[in-house]
Amino acid sequence: MRRRILALVAATVLLVLVAFAIPLATLVRTVAVDNAMSTATAEAQALTPLVATTDRNTLAPAVAQVDATTASDVSLFLPDGTVLGTPAPRSPLVELGMRGTSASTDTGGGREIVFAVRDANAAGGAIRVFVPDDELYRGVTRSWLLLAGLSVLLLAGGLLVADRLARSLVDASTDLSGVSERLARGDLAARADPSAPAELGVVAGALNGLAGRISELLREERENVADLAHRVRTPLTALRLDAEALPDPQEAARISSGVDGVQRAVTGAIEQARRRGGEGRSADAAAVVRERVQFWQVLAEDTERAVTLDLAEGPLPVTCARGDLEACVDALLGNVFAHTPDGTAFAVELAPRPGGGARLVVSDHGPGLPPGTDPTSRGTSGGGSTGLGLDIARRAADSGGGRLTLLSPPAGGLRVELELAAPEA
Q1: What's the pLDDT at 272?
Q2: How many CB atoms are closer than 10 A to CB 363?
Q3: Does domain 2-141 match CATH 2.60.40?
Q4: What residue ranges do the domains of the chain occupy?
Q5: Which CATH architecture has domain 280-420?
Q6: 76, 221, 252, 369: least CB-packed within 10 angstroms?
Q7: CA dist 132 → 36, 107, 113, 230 (Å)
Q8: Residue 353 DSSP label
Q9: What is the CA radius of gyration of the chain?
């Protein structure tokens, strides 16, 4: 856009300069020629009365003086053929003047002016003035150079003003684009400059209003989710007290462990609801996955499931909050227990991702995906559940700059691949 504005202004200024500069240059040339001709005519006409009233002895010095003091060549042709002043050929125009007709014409190297005169005896003569081109166009070149320099200055000034205007428009547009990208990344504190030129300032104000409204709606949503999650703590506390009152210590410990898991999930929901965009968006995938696998291994032993682990040593930093990553791993492993029969083996693999980040693979030898279903869609499930498990994993992958892939191996079962990107340096 900046180049287009500069090109438009340059073309406009050039058209204006051409429209005025060319006629002005022609006028300067015409005025210079007219001034030179007027001066030569006045000098020649000053000799006319002398020819009619002065004898030859007095006339010759007068003509010589006029010829010496002017830049033009002055010649006086007498009736007897004598030439006073600058020697000059008897041109056809001079012959015409000798017969009583005054005229002027362009000749090689200048302009010739002839005035018909009469001496004291009423005999015909002629005064010839030759004005060379240097005298005709004296000062024209300098005037044209000054006019060209002024045109260049006007063009440069127009381009400078246009560049400043274009820069302000481009900067304002770039600022709007940058603010939009920051808002898209979740930085709701981003604001555009409402003092941008013209309509861009209106757009900036509208964008700021939209960002403010989004922030307000998200704040209300966070508070509502946090309040709802906080209310769940009361029945959880009652459930914990009931578990502790059980006579069987092992059963009490098992139920208390489940209550602790729900408590952690509720706490994570509250923290996530109150978390501001962009804060705490990183975690060590190796530590989180290892911790959650250890938790689920206890249940795997109770259900006689063989577990194959291939976990890379950490740290493996990823762009995902710790609570979100824990919920994601729990969702993937929980699906194995919820949708496969007891005794079904599964495997968990964690490896570094090329280019940074981590790649988590959870595979099992269960019945696989029901035909014609997309369990990654929110609320969709082929097993009678809420359908939120894989959606949690998908959203964690999307927010972490990665992806979630579901594969059905030829041998059967389900293979879930979760990729998470590394945090920005």
Answers
A1: 62
A2: 19
A3: no
A4: 2-141, 280-420
A5: 2-Layer Sandwich (3.30)
A6: 221
A7: 10, 9, 11, 105
A8: P
A9: 50
